[in-house]
Structures are given as C-alpha cells and as structure tokens.
Amino acid sequence: MHVRRGIAVCPGIAIGPALVMDTEGVRIPIQTVPADQSAAEAARLRTAVIEAIRAAAERQRELTRKHGRVIGDIFEAKAGLYDDGKLIGGIEDLIRAKSYSAEYAVSRYVRDILKRLDSASHLPQAARLRGDYVDFEKDLLHLLLGGRREPLALDEPVIVLANDITPSETAELDLNLVFALATESGGATSHTAILAGAREIPAVVGVGRFLTDVSGGDRVIVDGNNGLVILDPDDATVERYEKARRLERSKSGEHRIQSRNVPGVTRDGVRVTMLGNIEFPAEARPCLDRGAEGVGLYRTEFLYIHKAHDPTEEEHYEAYKAVLTEMGPDRPVVIRTLDLGGDKFTHSTGLATQEKNPFLGLRSVRLCLRNLPLFKTQLRAILRASVHGDVRIMFPMISTVMELRQCKGILREVQEDLEEARIPFKPDVQVGTMIEVPSAAILADVFAKLVNFFSIGTNDLVQYTLAADRNNEAVADLYSAADPAVLRLIDRVVKAAAAAGVGVNVCGEMSGELMFAPLLIGLGVRQLSATPRKIPDIKRVVRAVTLPDCQKLAAECMRLDTASEITRYLRDHLRRVLPDADD
Ligand code: PEP
Ligand code: MG
After folding, report:
1. What share of residues in the chain are helix, strand, coil (percent, to 5)?
2. How far is the CA of 80 from the centre of ligand 1 (A)?
3. Among 67, 191, 306, 388, the one annotated catalytic
4. What is the pLDDT of residue 437?
5. CA-based nearest residue to 53, from 143, 159, 178
6. Closest ligand 1 atom number to CA of residue 458
7. What value does the mean pLDDT take over residues 286-308?
C-alpha cells in the first residue's frame, strides 16, 4: 500500500479501479526530410491544422451538448491554439530551417514550450497551459501520422489517474462513470479542480509523480477530504474508508433532503438567510438543491478561465441570465464585479504588469477603474440581465470612499447609456460593497451611507488585517478568522450596518465553517453565503441554537485575547449544540 499526499480540491471519498491516462504517451523520434521536401511538409502541417480546427469545433459542440456550457468552454481555449498564427508559424519555420518532418517539428516546438512552462510552474496559468499544449501536440500528431484517436470509452465506473486531465480527454470521458480524479500535476485552478468542483466528485491534484506505481484496474482510494491517494490499499484500510464513505453518503443525503425545504431559523425563531457562493452558472441548480435561498456571491472573474479572449458583453449577459433564470424572480443573485488580479486570472486580461505584491497592487476594482471599457462591459451586461430576476451588484476590494463613489458614478453612466439606447433594465437594482479591506471595515459607517448592503469577505479581510498571505502555508498559523482583531472589525461593520439600516452578509470561507455560525449570529449577522455543499450543515447549526445563547457566546469571544482561545471556545460550543458536527 502506498499513500500519496496532494492538494484536496473537492471533498469526498471514492474507492474503485484505476483508469491510468498517460497524457504524454506520444513521442516522435528525430526525423528530417530532404530540403526540397520542406515546402510539402509545411503544406502537410497546414492541412493538419485545418483539420484540427474543424475537429476542435466539432468536439466543443459535442462537449457542450453532453456536459453543458461550463465544460464546453474549457475546450475553447485549447481550440484557440490552432488559430494562433505565431505558434503555427514557429513550427513552419522549424520545418524550413532545419528540414524537420512536420511531426518532429510539432513535437520539438511543443516540447520547448513545455520546458519553459515547467520552469514557470509557479505561475497560476502554467499547469493549465501545459495541458492545452500537450493536447495540441497529440491531436496534430495523430492527424499527421494518419491515426485516429479512439474515444476513451468507459463501460464501468473508474477513478481517473492522470498527469493532468486535458480538455480533449475531458471530451472523451463519460463523467458519469468517473468516481474521482487524481493528478500528478495541477493546482487549485487546474482543469481537474474545475471539473471536479462542477461535478462534485472527490479530487486530489498536485500529488507529484505516482503513475508509474499503479496499473489500470488496480484498486485505489481517493480521499478528497484529506488530499490523499492510496494505491493498492490493504483490506483494513478499504474497510475503514468504506465505512467513512457510507457515513458520509447517508449524512449528506439526509442533510440535503432535510435542509432543502426547511428555513435557517434558530430555536427561538430568528431567521438566518442562507445563500450560496458560485463561480459558474451551472452551479446555480446544485446551489438550490442544497437549500440555498439565492446566490450571495457570484464570482464573475471565472468567466475568464480558459478563455483566449476577454468575455464579450453578450457572454457576460448570457451567464448572468442563466443564473437568474435558474434562481427565479424572487431569489437574490449578488453579482460581484470582476475581482481579477491578485492570484486570479490576471494573465487573461493582459492588463496587469508583473507586480511585486499583486495582492496589494492593481487588483479587482482598482483594475476595473483603470480599464473602463472592461468595467462598463460587465456593468451593461449585469443591468441588461436585471430584467430576468432579483440581481444585485457588488463591488469588491473597495478600500476608500472615493473608489466606491467612482464605481457608483460609472454605474450611473452605464445606466444613462442604456436609457439613451432604450435598452431595458431595472433602475432600482440594489448596490453593495464588499468589506474585505480593514480601511473599509473601519469606515463602515461612512460606506453604509452609500450602499444598500455590505458583504464581509473574510478571506481577504483576514489576510489584510493580519498581513498574512491567504495562500502561503508558511504563515497559515497567523491566518485565522477567529483572531480578535478580525472579530472586532466584523463587530464594527455589523453595528455600522444596523445603525444605517443596510443589510450585512458574510461571504468568505468563515461563513462555511460551522463553529463560526453561532458567533456570527450572536454578533448580529442574519445572512450567510457559503459554498453550496456546506449549506445543509450550517442550517443544522442555526436550527440548534438560540439567539441569547449566540449573543452570550459572542460576548465571551470578544473578551478573549487570542485566536486559539477563541477557536477552542467555539469548537467546544459547537460540540455541545451539535455533537455530530464535523468541525
Ligand atoms: C473574500 O475575500 O472573502 C471573498 C469572498 O472573495 P474572494 O475569496 O473571491 O477573494
Ligand atoms: Mg476577496
């Protein structure tokens, strides 16, 4: 038995036979042609590229039909490579300059790109681009060699193990027969993570080399809760995991059914609205299935993922309309304007230069305010979509009053443009701001005069309050939402909101951690927005407490001096009110 550790990107446990995919199976030996055949080789390359473009478009259509737009779009960026004149031109140059065969030139050119990507593996886009190029190479080689790839037909459920899962492999897999995914490479934004998230199947990425230790059909366990891949597990381990899986299934099944139709209300009748955080339109339905009463945070920057170009107004509009239609006319959908930059998809915009401190740099609304066409395109689309439901607009990373005023000014300009063009939209769309920078929390009373609602983004609020990078393991001990400094800021924001009569929601990961729910209720929060799969359990916690109990808990926490004391106190409390809770 071998236990390998990676990054847990989607929770759950799967036990089953392995399907091992070697994405780099095709290697071409060095091959040259007589110099006078170079032109013919270049022509062969061009013919193959034309065929690849046709096949890519066909596959994208098929993928969209089979798995929906989200998965289909993943294929689009890859298809874009075939259209990249520079790339094809580079391969043709190799054919002409070195008399390489078309196959060898493709392989050689792509391998060089892969080497460069490997040495830039710290960049968030490197893993994804790597997969796209490997795919591109394989497709062209198969065309040039006259071979056709057989679809990867599955006739039984499997656990897919791969170096990385490229878009074309996605196209070929019947995802209904995939129990779990584990990959050697990749990070939280890799294809595998996105796929697993959209499908809610257990997944572990970034495991490092392990494919040589496993053969197709071997029994493996993927533990997406703890980021483990267990190869050839012994019987005792299988038994332990089977028990855990049964428990998990019955718990999540029960909770989902129970929570769908019951409101989040405390034992003494205080209503707590439960909303879901989503990244893709396809998540709207699962969000409702888990008992969400609306979308509290739609992270729209994910429209940029796997895109060769910035999303058009129409693409924005279609995505928002899809979510609003799924949610119906009465459930709120809070659309957050683009939060690009920091660690999120800056590459696709080509807007930000290399920054030394991207989290403190031209990120999010700062970037939008300096790129008005980008910002206005999105605002137009949101306003146009407002006729389809209860849309609300939220600005992220606001750190000064001026920024908020500017954002509102731009929104007004866009509204006027639409009016002039007689394009319908709802004129009274609610506008809110995220509170995720300490300056905004401190000035919450001033900000409250300018908006209809606040949403506290604790993921960033914690990192900026404690000066601890949210992605850096080395400072993970400092990074805690239970820190008294963070709690005081939250308390301040909730009080300022209450005094001004504006709504306040908490949408960072803190709201999905069960132990924090009673504390937030005690502080006065009446709206939580969390990852949809967390909603059933949060509702159970809400329904197990009373307001006086939560207020007493909050008062006690506010008297404590350290994050560890507060965490201990909250855990003990959770254990008392809900003994079978997981955290
Ligand atoms: C947050 O910062 O808490 C938040 C919800 O935004 P994101 O995680 O997308 O930065
Ligand atoms: Mg944030």
Report:
1. 55, 15, 30
2. 30
3. 191
4. 98
5. 143
6. 3
7. 85
